[in-house]
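chain below, 141 aa
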Amino acid sequence: MNKNMYLRPRRSLGFTLLEMLAVIVLLGIVATIVVRQVGGNVDKGKYGAGKAQLASLSMKIENYALDVGTPPKNLEQLTTRPTNVRNWSGPYAKSSDLNDPFGHEFGYRSPGQHGSFDLIFYGQDGQPGGEGYSADIGNWE
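prediction:
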């Protein structure tokens, strides 16, 4: 065996349990801060994507209305040809286009209160009303 190993001070042989716990606690604090920052940005990104998807879906409804003469009675008519409808040149949308980035269905009324149709993005909570990332946005705004 190496005699020099026994001559070194005991402290230099490794980390103490207290030092390891301190590092683990610091890593936990840093990880918590990072997760909070990233989590907020994910919601912000999804909300922005929902607004963009609302505009895109609104244009698809308008394309349907130009071909058929009236907006669809429900959003499923954008993906599947309805019976007794002439000049349908769809599909106008994919079924995945009918859900917002949070996984909720868009609100839809035809005829609408603000025009020939109302398309509503309900935000993060998927419910009418709300503030922040849960605020509603309509195609008329």
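The chain has a mean pLDDT of 85. The domain at 17-138 is CATH 3.30.700.10 (Glycoprotein, Type 4 Pilin).
thats it, cya
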